C-alpha cells in the first residue's frame, strides 16, 4: 500500500498558507518528515489524519480517497498527536480498553486480549493498573503508541513524538517505532534531525509549507560529501564569514563558535567534515531562506 499526496495546499482562514503544492509518495516503512517549527508539518499530518480539510489537491491511501472517504480512512489509521492528553486518574488498562471500545472492538473478551498484547508490546504491562497521571513522559508516549496501534492500522502518524523525552526514553521509543515500521506506513513528523537519522529509510524536508528535499537519508547525505568544511572562529567574526561563505550552521564549542560551510573546494584554514544529515537539513533550509530574502 502507498500513501500518495498530490499537489496539496492549505490556506487557513487568517490567510496563512501553511502548505503549498505538497507532493509526496510514501511507502511502507518509516518516513521522516523533517522541518523547523512552523514549516507546516502538523498541518500536513492533521490533513492526512482526516482532522482538517485541504484547500486543494488530493491524498490517496491505496484505493481510498483520504479527503473524501474519511470514515474508511479512520478505520485503518493510528494517530499519535503532538500533545497526547491522558485522563490522570484512569489506569492504563481501563483507558486502553475504553479507546478500543470507541474504535469499534465491542467484544469484551477480545478487547481484553488486544489491550494486554498492546501493553506488552509497549512495555507497560507491569504498570497496567497504575493511573496515567503517574506516568513519565516516555511512558505516556508509549501509551500513546499503544492506543494508535489498536485495530492494526495500515497508516500510523506520529507528530513530534520525542520532544521532552530523556535520552533513555527516546531510545526505547525509537526501538518501539522501528518494530512497528516493518509492515505499516509510519510517518514521523519531527524537527529533530537525529530522530530521522536513527529511524527513517525515506524522508522529506519541509520548509515554509513546501517540500524542499526528499529521498533516502543516506543518498541526501552522499550528495553533500566532500563539500562540507568547518572552522572555529571568534563570535564577532561571524558576520564577516556569513558575508564571504555559504554558512549553513553555527555551533558553540567550548566557548568558541564553529561554523559549517558548503563549498566545492577547501578554502584556506577550513577543515574537511564528513557530511551529515544535519548538514543536509541546514543547507536546504538556508537555500530556501535565501530565495525569500533576496
Ligand atoms: P509545524 O507543525 O511544522 O510547526 P504548523 O503546521 O503547525 O507547522 O504551522 C504552519 C503554519 O500555519 C504556521 O505559520 C502556523 O502559525 C500556521 N497555523 C497552524 N495552524 C493554524 C490554524 N489553525 N489557524 C491559522 N494558522 C495556523
What does the secondary structure layout of this molecule look like, with pairings?
Blueprint: E1 3-11, E2 17-26, E3 29-34, H1 41-48, E4 56-61, E5 64-65, H2 70-75, E6 77-80, H3 92-102, H4 108-121, H5 137-149, E7 155-159, H6 167-180, E8 185-190, H7 193-199, E9 202-207, E10 210-215, H8 217-222, E11 228-233, H9 238-244, E12 247-253, E13 256-262, E14 271-272, H10 277-293
Parallel strand pairs: 3-8, 3-9, 6-7, 7-8
Antiparallel strand pairs: 1-2, 1-4, 4-5, 9-10, 11-13, 11-14, 12-13
Bound molecules: adenosine-5'-diphosphate.
Adenosine-5'-diphosphate is lined by residues 12, 14, 16, 18, 35, 37-43.
Notable characteristics:
294 residues; alpha/beta; Rossmann fold; 2 domains; 4-stranded antiparallel β-sheet; 10 helices; 35% helix; 28% strand; globular; binds adenosine-5'-diphosphate
The number of E-state strands comes to: 14
CATH architecture heading of the largest domain:
3-Layer(aba) Sandwich
**β-strand amount:** 25-35%
Q: What would CATH call the homologous superfamily of the largest domain?
A: P-loop containing nucleotide triphosphate hydrolases
Note the overall shape. globular
Count structural domains: 2
User: How are helices and strands ordered from N to C?
Assistant: EEEHEEHEHHHEHEHEEHEHEEEH
Amino acid at each position: 500500500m502507498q500513501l500518495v499526496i498530490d499537489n496539496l495546499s492549505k490556506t487557513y482562514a487568517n490567510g496563512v498558507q501553511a502548505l503549498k503544492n505538497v507532493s509526496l509518495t510514501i511507502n511502507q516503512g518509516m518516513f521522516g518528515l523533517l522541518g523547523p517549527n512552523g514549516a507546516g508539518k502538523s498541518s500536513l499530518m492533521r490533513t492526512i489524519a482526516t482532522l482538517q480539510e485541504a484547500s486543494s489537491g488530493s491524498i490517496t491511501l491505496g484505493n481510498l480517497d483520504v479527503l473524501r472517504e474519511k470514515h474508511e480512512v479512520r478505520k485503518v489509521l493510528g494517530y499519535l498527536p503532538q500533545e497526547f492528553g491522558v485522563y490522570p486518574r484512569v489506569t492504563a488498562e481501563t483507558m486502553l480498553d475504553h479507546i478500543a471500545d470507541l474504535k469499534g472492538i465491542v467484544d469484551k473478551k477480545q478487547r481484553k486480549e488486544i489491550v494486554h498484547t498492546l501493553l506488552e508490546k509497549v512495555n507497560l504491562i507491569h504498570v497496567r493498573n497504575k493511573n496515567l497521571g503517574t506516568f513519565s513522559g516516555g511512558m505516556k508516549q508509549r501509551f500513546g503508541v499503544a492506543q494508535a496501534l489498536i485495530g492494526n492500522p495500515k497508516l500510523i502518524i506520529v507528530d513530534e513524538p520525542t520532544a521532552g523525552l530523556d535520552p533513555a526514553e527516546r531510545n526505547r521509543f525509537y526501538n518501539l517505532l522501528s518494530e512497528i515500521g516493518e509492515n505499516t506506513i509510519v510517518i514521523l513528523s519531527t524537527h529533530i534531525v537525529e530522530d530521522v537519522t536513527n529511524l527513517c529509510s525515506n524522508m522529506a524536508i519541509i520548509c515554509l509549507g513546501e517540500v524542499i528535499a526528499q529521498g533516502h537519508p543516506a543518498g541526501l547525505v552522499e550528495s553533500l560529501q566532500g563539500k562540507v568544511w568547518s572552522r572555529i572562529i571568534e563570535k564577532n567574526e561571524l558576520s564577516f564569514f556569513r558575508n564571504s561563505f555559504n554558512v549553513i550552521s553555527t555551533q558553540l564549542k567550548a566557548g568558541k563558535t564553529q561554523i559549517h560551510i558548503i563549498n566545492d573546494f577547501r578554502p584556506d584554514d577550513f577543515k574537511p567534515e564528513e557530511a551529515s544529515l544535519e548538514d543536509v537539513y541546514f543547507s536546504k533550509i538556508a537555500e530556501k531562506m535565501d530565495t525569500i530574502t533576496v
